[in-house]
Amino acid sequence: RARSASPGSPPALDGSFLLSPLGGLMGAQAVLGLLVWSLIAATTYHLHAAYGWVMFVSLFFWILTLLFFVTYLLQLHEKFYMIPWPLVLMIYNAVATVLYITAFVTCAAAVQPTSWRQWDYNRRAAASFFACVTMITYGVSTFFSFRAWKGLGSNAATSQVTDHA
């Protein structure tokens, strides 16, 4: 780690976070989520209610993922040590996985190969593929978040006490 952030110190970049599984997955989720919502936004999605749901899920979780990414990158989560961050991140990733499953299925089911606008079909099909890949990355993040929440040989309560006592 770059350095531990105490409550009164300015934010510091944590380069090791970028190399961690959660950091790498969050970066991938930000890029993939951007692809999903930008591909849908480039179509006439407003004519199809199903794509409104896909836009909501992809944009909502893209923004929240960026916020979590910046929070961890700048070690701001250590300034708010009273929040059980591993548990929060695990719940967030689990909810994102479930909602991305619904977005992927909705997007894939709404793709019409006989669309009169070929570029809409291509973009929607690509968005469906990237929604699937994004869903998988959130699922893998849920696994790593669960492991971080459980800790290595400890529970969430003891890791909170020993980290900040």
Please render the helix and strand layout as text:
Blueprint: H1 15-19, H2 21-41, H3 49-73, H4 85-110, H5 118-150, H6 156-164
Helix pairs in contact: 2-3, 2-5, 3-4, 4-5
Mean pLDDT value: 85
Helix content: over 70%
- Which class best fits the helix and strand makeup? mainly alpha
Total helical elements: 6
What is the general shape? elongated
Largest sheet: none
Which parts are unreliable, with pLDDT below 50 for 5 consecutive residues or more?
A: 153-165
Domain MARVEL: 17-150
Subunit structure: Forms oligomers.
Keywords: Cell membrane, Membrane, Transmembrane, Transmembrane helix
Main location: membrane
How would you describe what is shown here?
This protein folds into two domains: 15-81; 84-158. Helix content is 72%, strand content 0%. It contains six helices and no strands. Residues 153-165 have low confidence and may be disordered.
Question: Descriptors for this entry?
Answer:
72% helix; 6 helices; 2 domains; 165 residues; single chain; elongated; disordered C terminus
Q: How would you summarize this macromolecular structure in one to three sentences?
A:
This protein is mainly alpha-helical.
